[in-house]
Design brief:
The structure is a homodimer of 225-residue chains. Chain A has 225 residues and is α+β, with helices and mostly antiparallel strands. Chain A has one domain: Electron Transport, Fmn-binding Protein, Chain A (Pnp Oxidase, Chain A), CATH 2.30.110.10. The first copy, chain A, contains 5 helices and 11 strands; from the N terminus they run αββββαβββααββββα. In chain A, strands 1, 2, 5, 6, 9 and 10 form a 6-stranded antiparallel sheet that branches. The longest helix of chain A is centred in the middle third of the chain and has 15 residues. The radius of gyration of chain A is 20 Å and the shape is globular. At the A-B interface, strand 1, strand 2, strand 5, strand 6 and helix 3 of A face strand 1, strand 2, strand 5, strand 6 and helix 3 of B. Strand 10 of chain A pairs antiparallel with strand 10 of chain B.
Chain lengths: 225, 225
Amino acid sequence: MTTSADIRTPLSPTPRSTLTRYRGQRDATDRAALDAVLDTGTVCHLGVLMHGAPVVVPTIYGRDGDTLYLHGSTGAGNLRTAMTGDVCVSVTLVDGIVYARAVMHFSMNYRSAVIHGRPVELTDQDERLHALRVIVEHAAPGAWDNARPPTKKELAATTVLSLDLTEASVKTRAGDPSDDESDLASDTWAGVLPIRQTFGDPITSADLTPGIAVPEHVRTRNATS
Amino acid sequence: MTTSADIRTPLSPTPRSTLTRYRGQRDATDRAALDAVLDTGTVCHLGVLMHGAPVVVPTIYGRDGDTLYLHGSTGAGNLRTAMTGDVCVSVTLVDGIVYARAVMHFSMNYRSAVIHGRPVELTDQDERLHALRVIVEHAAPGAWDNARPPTKKELAATTVLSLDLTEASVKTRAGDPSDDESDLASDTWAGVLPIRQTFGDPITSADLTPGIAVPEHVRTRNATS
């Protein structure tokens, strides 16, 4: 998915992308961690400011190098708004539920990326096509070259945005619960219940021409997290 | 989890909680759909306005009747900010990847709840304890009564917020791809690759007193979606 991996900008956390809690403990502000979270995630949550209040909606995305791509209908209000100010994109992988000996130490194991910035609308047709390919290939690797390309009309009805990944942070919690020393002798069980995202068997569309087999890029796809 | 299910307010969508696209097709503004998404989800994405821009972070939550509860450290900037203005909470269940015959029709199957409102900080100790129980029981059903209750010091270090579920919307996509009539005879496979969230085997904390078995409420837990 990454085509410009050789030239990478270091993450440049700003106050709002720098964690105020657990600094040095749960944050890992390096490119590899950010890339891993973004490439493993399925949907992001896009936060925009509409009529003075935040609006958060899920959407698919794709990453190429230091750029995150988003797309949507030209009629989608949140994308129109996204072009007029800063947005926040959050991608979260939930890895497990942390059972502690004390109720206030229950927690989640997770990997989370948070990106701030002002998206730019892509207008160059080649750039737009590249971004759409990156988004579709992120959601469905191997699919782009096997499906009908966009028509001019479809492209005209689609807004494509790019968001620079410079102002971003990654936060991770992993491992055992963090119980108080004084609770360690408790007879309450403590540990982690892992959560995994897996794929089920492909369901062929009811209106598919009979005889078309599930292609290898679908059949052999592995779990995303 | 619901203790006040008998008295329910109907959803009251406002312009910002009403879908501008696919109206009547993908929105299902009824309580049962909202409750189902919130009760099935593991984390929500909380969007707040900080320094004039949206900030979106994942956090656990719980629902009781028409109220969503959130909590965090008193030192968490996003919770402090959440009390001073409107927030948006989004819970998304990703159900599958929709493979279409045309690249622009690729999509996700999902169930998504979006809630708008101004959170209220809970100050009454009984209400705070109830909210914390709802949050912990949402993340780990059966856990609250088996773990050490909060101390006064722990409670003093915790912010607990309630958010009314009146201004909310649910959006769902399910089923086959929506290809154009003219693409139906294509020889490209079309269908859905289901995504499921499942639990792995419990991992006991390394520092647990030997001999404590994994309790039934952990061992027998089913997948969340």
